[in-house]
Amino acid sequence: MNSFSELNLNKQILNALDEAGYEKPTPIQEKAIPQVLSGQDILGIAQTGTGKTAAFLLPILMKIKYAQGDQPRVLILEPTRELAIQVEKECEKYCKYLDIRFLAVYGGVGPKTQIEEVEKGLDIVIATPGRLMDLYRNLTLSLNSLQVMIIDEADRMMQMGFLPQIHQLLEVIPRKRQNLLFSATMPPPVKELTAEFLEFPVEIEVTPQATPAETVKQIQFQVPNLKTKINLLEKLLKDEIYSKVIVFTRSKSTADNVFKYLERKVEGNIRVIHSNKGQNSRINAINQFKEGEVRVLVSTDVTARGIDVAKVSHVINFDVPIQYEDYVHRIGRTGRAFHTGEAISLVNEAEQYHIRKIEELIRMSIEVVDLPEGLDISPTPKEEAIQIARQIDHQKRKEDPTFKGAFQEKKKRPSKNSKSFNKGGNKSKRKKR
Ligand code: AMP
Q: Which is the closest atom of ligand 1 to the Cα of 53?
């Protein structure tokens, strides 16, 4: 499925998703959204990073439509305060154009503000079990109008000993309701809870997509242009610790160009694989790389999916993947099976946007490292500067449809153009560091 518009979501939600930069549903969203919309109970086996929050929030927002009454119609239970806050943030993102009231309530802070907010009236309450029961018992929060209940991260909920509170809760909420339960794993206590909580659930399981191995160290270099990326790559590969390296590129032509350059400049055997290379040549290159006869393998994303090579020392993202899941696949080539590895991304100014999206997806920040001393920083050719500026304008317009675009303004005066792009690029880079 290529777009959210196929999922029967309303215009307001689609606009909010577009502004959030979501291009297409993740597998769990594709599977769960129609089922939730049709009223089914759901057992979702999925980790964070798969897009599971939107998978339940979006159809729920469709169902409750707008603010109504004072008592919450939806309850989302979260094991920790951090998760409750995070889900509230997601809710805020998707509700941008909707008149729906939501609130996270959790312990660790005084109840006063939360009580005041609850009393104003709510449609969705996102809660940790302890605080929820406190607010219920002191009659701040009524649960009589609940239509949908979601238990998120059920396995963590069990580990943290919340089963008694969940039982108490199930005693007091309306029987007729829709139930959704999400869990990354299914240990016996979660299975038992599932049997008790869900009625004829539809089971949806997705493999984790966006959870990079913890054994991979991730860093990024902010590099102004293509030529400097090549210089940097060459400089890095002078060091012997780069013993078994995959260099990823988005396009076949970049892969070929990088390969040609490295072949002339870098010690050791270099090979390139992409879909225009014959099957045999690809298999040979991968085998030689596995055996250690090839030091550097240059590859596009498509051909790299199935490669299972032990002890890849470094993955270098010559450019940042625009299909963000590919980042996880790429860096999954290193740090396999308990070996540590390093993933290095070379990021130009336009690609910083995609890196931020990837950081959101993987819920990790990728450390920015200073360019090595003595690196030859080439000036950005005019064509490339224009291309980068255009991409940045496009991104800004995507985030804010009212953004007019510096690029369009400057286009009228081409002679001043390239200079100001270069200056702008460097300035913002320095600020970032
Ligand atoms: P979750 O698995 O719900 O914790 O979501 C992981 C991250 O992916 C969150 O930062 C979401 O905002 C983001 N996300 C969810 N769905 C999509 C999508 N379809 N496209 C891009 N990002 C998404």
A: 3
Q: What is the pLDDT confidence band of residue 138, given thresholds at 50, 70 and 90?
A: very high
Residue from 324, 360, 362, 363 whose mutation best tests the ligand 1 pocket (most atoms within 8 A of CB): 360
pTM: 0.55
Looking at the CA of residue 93, tell me the nearest atom of ligand 1. 12
What architecture is the 4-205 domain classified under in CATH? Answer: 3-Layer(aba) Sandwich (3.40)
Give the residue extent of every domain in the chain: 4-205, 216-379
Atom 16 of ligand 1, residue of closest alpha carbon: 51
Q: Is 254 in the pocket of ligand 1 (CB under 6 A)?
A: no
Q: Quote the tokens at residue 72.
A: 């919450």
Determine contact, residues 45/204, Cβ cutoff 8 Å.
Answer: yes
How close is the Cα of 322 to the center of ligand 1, in Å? 15
* pLDDT tens per residue, range 315-360: 999 999 987 877 887 887 776 544 568 899 999 999 999 999 999 8
Longest dimension (CA), the chain: 75
Q: Using an 8 Å Cβ cutoff, are 263 and 377 in contact?
A: no
CB 229 within 8 A of CB 346: yes
Fold of 216-379: Rossmann fold (3.40.50)
**Residue for token digits 């929050």?**
53
